[in-house]
Amino acid sequence: MRLFFNRFFILLKRSIRQPVNAVMLMILVLLAVIYRQIPASEKSLYLPVAVLCEDTDPIMQKTVDSLCNSNSIFHFHPVKDKDEMYQELSSGESNSGILIPAGFTEQAWTTTTDLRIQVYTTQASMLPSLCRDEIFNRFFRGAAVSIILKNMSGISDYAGIDASQMADALNRIYESILSRGDIFRVEDSSGGVYNVLTREEKVEIPVRKFAGLFILTAGLIGIATFLKDSEERLYLRLRGGERYVMRLLHIISCILPMSLISWPVIWITEGGNGLMILGEVVLYTLVCILYSLLFSVIIRSSSVYQKVLPILLTLAIVFGGVLFDVSSFDRTFKYISMCLPIYYF
Q: Which residues contact 120 (CB under 8 A, 6 or more apart)?
């Protein structure tokens, strides 16, 4: 056992000195440094909302025009029909959709209306309730006076009052209140008017995928060095079980430095629970060890393995999610990705 430990430390030093492994370690550290140095930029959310208005009432038409010309976090725009709305929602062109049914304004004077403004959302929709509030806020700005007059007309105490004069008086009062600017306004914690929503974003660097690729590559390189040493008869005296232990030592000696560096690098770039990330790295490392060990059993010739290795690495780069988003692949390509350990990391 002591002999195997001595050989393991020798292999560990040897793997660190290998140019490929050294370069991969430097790239991981460099990615972490670059990510930390790049400042986060504030990006305003762009939330387009498709509006389909079937109500021809002038008040509602004015409301829709006000929405489409408003300065808020939502960018309302009209659509011709439901098909256009559904198409924009399904393609992600619109964050949500609004359908205003015909006759809504006429029935809005009472609380017994069966008509409802419908808000269409998807799993990707953001702030649908705030979008709804924006619509009703602007609608009641234009409809409040008409709603009051409609309800006053049925009360006998107001039967002798001229409706047009009352409407003018209510409009003056209502507009003077709105023009003050201290009601119907929501402020954020910094005291600014809530007409824009921002979030911090950093340049997307697939650090986790790079780490997963390098760990897998290190394991495959470990097999290459074992096959080369075996063909040079360095392990000629070892028995069957001992030879498998030596295979494993070659793989672990190459993978271990990469895994140890990958854990803090991923933690620095992603944040979150460090112990959970450590567990993910350990689990993925064990999978890569078994994956590499399987190839060492299947392919026993160094010359054949050197021809297969570039193919495996190319598949890992293309179908592992390092360069492309795996979720956008079709079913066939996704099955290929699922055959690679990096897909699950």
A: 85, 86, 89, 96, 97, 98, 99
